[in-house]
Structure formats: C-alpha cells, structure tokens
Write a structure and sequence with these properties.
Elements lengths: L4 E5 L4 H13 L3 E5 L18 E6 L3 E5 L2 H11 L10 H27 L2 H10 L9 H23 L3 H25 L10 H15 L2 H10 L1 H10 L21 H12 L1 H13 L4 E6 L2 E6 L2 H16 L2 H11 L5 H4 L3
Parallel strand pairs: 1-2
Antiparallel strand pairs: 1-3, 3-4, 5-6
Helix pairs in contact: 1-7, 3-5, 3-6, 3-7, 3-12, 3-13, 4-5, 6-8, 6-9, 6-10, 7-8, 7-9, 11-12
C-alpha cells in the first residue's frame, strides 16, 4: 500500500494507545486523527462505535473502516508483512490471545475504576481528558465533568464493574498484584513471550498507558511498587527501532519461565471467573451476572460482548492441533485458566 492508513482515536483511550504502539512497532505508515475530527473527513462509518477507528486505503482514494482492536490487529497481519506480533508457535499464539483478552476485558475494568471510581482521579480526568483536544475552550472543560464524566461514572457502576464498594477492592488488589507479577517477569525477559512483543504485550500496554501514565492514584502505586513496569510502558510506546528477525525472538514453549505461570494464575484468579460467570448468566437469560473472585462476591450487568470474547477464545483453542492443545492443557492446569476452555 502506498498511502498511509488512518487511525482515529484519543490519547485517553487505552485501545487507541494499543494500536498506535503496534503500528509504530510494525512500521506501518499511518496518520493519526483525533476522534472528534473524523466528521471533517469524507470517511466511511466504522462498523462499531469503538476507539480506535482504523481506515485502510482502498482503491485510488477510498478507505475501508474497521473497529475492535483484537480484529484490527489480526487484519493488519494479513495486510502487512514483517515484524509480526503473532508467535509462530501455535501454542504461544493462543497464550498471547488469552493474555491480550485478559487485558482488553479485565484489566480495562481496573483502568475504568481508577479513572471514574476514585474521587481524586475523577477530578484529574475531568480536567485533562478534554484538553487533549488542543482547541477546546475553557467553558467546555468546565462542562465536561457534568456531561461525559458523569455518564462514565454512572456506566462504571452499572455496566463495567457493578457495585464500586464491592468491586473496587477486587480491582485494586488485582492491579497491584499484576504490577508485581510484571515487574518480576520483565526481569527475566523483555516481553511477555520472549525478546520481541506479541499481541499480549500491546494489550497490556494499552491499559497500562492509562494506569501508570495518567491516573494519579494508580500511577503512584506503580511508582512505588513497579517503576520497571512504568519504564516498560514508556519503551513500548515506540518500538519502531527494535531489531527483530522474522520467526526469531520468541521464547521456546518448553522454556516459559515461572513468572509466566504466575501471570496465568492471576488471569485464572480474576478474568476466568468473571468471563465464565458472565457467559453463564447470558446463557440463562439473566440481565445480571454474578461470580466469586478471591472469595468475594462480584456482580455487574451481563455484557453480551464479553460472552462473544469467551466464545472466540474457545474457537482459537479448538483450532489447535492435538499436540498443541495438549501443551496448552498442561500449561493452564492448576492456574484457573483451564476452566475457560473445558467446554470448548
């Protein structure tokens, strides 16, 4: 493709940051457009109202719109060669998919909670987020807290994380454990699955850009407990200069470090019971999902998209050949993650 693709999003959007970092690493030419400036361009509507929107050149001067970072990432793999973020080993590729989805669907709850569920952070976000549009007038900033910010606060309680009094401590504890787990893992190897980044890294990076670079209280925790993770997020922002050789740089499946299994344990401790509880609730037609996380009750509005996410994860598992599926079963056994694929 001779023309650059276009990406429309926001600095405060973890999924925008995920995809911008991926485009830089893969050296795919792009232009960034603030999401509120898309209306000034003659661009097609994205399939879903999600950030970022990616517009892929088509024909002489047209574009095709896409949405949902999980699928955008994989579509770009098909369109642009080199510097792949999908491991060549099918088993590692499945593990990367699992961790990417953990970041997209569970860690994002911590991000949302720290932004809209902690009073000092609400005030910070209400003032900062609108200013990333450099032309916004002061009166808009003043009104932002009573409009968009209040809607996000209401959404947190109803859709994203249920009762803040109940879910808040669960999300805080999960985030703090993850900081320590990643801190120790990045002492062993530079990225989640070796010496080059995978989809798992960009999934984690997107959410962490907000948690360790934007929200005051979660940033303070990272500064105190895991400055190595803060530095990692800064580095992953732009990996365009990282030298990689196609097919090389991935950890051998039989050499996954203990720190990786500990990361799987955190996923099995939080993401797995949530995803299973949500899926079960929707199967029964319940508008509210309930589960137990760390021995504590957790509930929120059932979310159909996350039901699809679990179905897609199981489809990826089902695609594996017997040898690779056997390895995944052994790797997930005892982490809590095995329950995610038992019904596949």
């Amino acid at each position: 493709m001779t023309r650059p693709l276009l990406i429309s999003g926001a600095i405060g959007s973890p999924y925008t940051r995920k995809m911008k970092a991926l485009l830089l690493y893969r050296r795919i030419p792009y232009q960034f457009i603030a999401f509120n400036a898309v209306k000034d361009r003659n661009l097609p509507k994205t399939p879903l109202p999600l950030l970022p929107g990616i517009y892929i050149p088509e024909g002489e001067d047209g574009y095709r719109a896409s949405s949902d970072s999980t699928f955008q990432l994989r579509e770009l793999e098909a369109l642009y060669s080199g510097r792949s973020v999908l491991p060549t080993d099918p088993a590692l590729d499945f593990l990367a998919y699992l961790i990417e989805d953990f970041a997209d669907e569970w860690l994002t709850k911590a991000m949302f909670y720290y932004r809209w569920g902690v009073s000092e952070n609400v005030d910070h976000a209400s003032k900062l987020l609108p200013l990333w549009n450099l032309r916004v007038p002061d009166e808009f900033v003043e009104a932002f807290k009573n409009s968009f910010a209040q809607r996000q606060i209401d959404r947190l309680s109803g859709v994203v994380a249920g009762s803040i009094e109940v879910s808040g401590p669960i999300l805080e504890a999960s985030y703090q454990r993850l900081l320590v787990l990643l801190r120790e893992h990045f002492k062993v190897q530079e990225f989640v699955l070796g010496q080059r980044p995978s989809a798992a890294d960009f999934g984690l990076h997107g959410q962490l850009t907000q948690l360790v670079q934007v929200e005051p209280s979660s940033m303070a925790l990272a500064r105190a407990e895991a400055p190595r993770v803060m530095a990692w997020v800064d580095v992953v922002d732009d990996l365009s200069g990282l030298d990689v050789t196609d097919g090389e740089g991935w950890v051998d499946r039989d050499a996954l470090p203990d720190t990786f299994r500990e990361l799987l344990g955190e996923i099995g401790r939080t993401y797995a019971p949530f995803m299973l509880g949500n899926h079960s609730a929707l199967e029964r037609g319940n508008e509210q999902m309930e589960c137990s996380i760390d021995g504590q009750p957790y509930w929120q509005k059932s979310f159909p998209y996350q039901r699809k996410c679990l179905d897609w994860l199981r489809e990826e598992y089902a695609k594996l050949e017997d040898r690779d599926r056997s390895f995944i079963d052994k790797t997930l056994s005892g982490t809590g993650c095995e329950a995610l694929v038992q019904a596949a």
